[in-house]
Amino acid sequence: MANHKSALKRIKQTAVKAERNRFYKTRIKNITRAFKEAIESGNKEEAQKSLLIINKNFHKFVTKGILKQNTASRKVSRLHKQVNALN
User: Fold this and answer.
1) What is the 8-class DSSP label of residue 67?
2) Transmembrane ranges (predicted)?
3) The overall pTM is greater than 0.85
4) Residues with Cβ < 8 Å from 42, sequence gap 6 or more?
């Protein structure tokens, strides 16, 4: 256990950030799962709706510092390719 005041504060901050990151990582997994289910079923309209949600959320997560810009852009780009391949 930490003995210094600053170390105790860091432990609290780490716990808060870990909880926050867990929420966002779960959100990312859930919205991509919905997209993949739409792709597997061949429903292009549903996939496009999911893609709009993914694009909005990923770039919002970039501003919050959860994802890096290039990571979000790369993931969205790959998902766009999957939607375009449904034709």
Assistant:
1) S
2) none
3) no
4) 86
pLDDT in tens, 34-48: 999 999 999 999 999
Q: What angle do CA 60, 42, 82 make, to 5 degrees?
A: 50
Cα separation, 59 vs 4, whole angstroms: 38
Residue 87 near residue 43 (C-beta atoms within 8 A): no
Nearest to 86 by CA among 38, 54, 52: 38
- Structure-block tokens of residue 31: 């919205």
The domains located in the chain, with CATH, are: 5-84 (1.20.58.110)
Contact 74, 81 (CB under 8 A): no
**For residue 18, with 0-12 CB atoms within 10 Å meaning exposed, 13-18 middle and 19 or more buried, which class applies?**
exposed
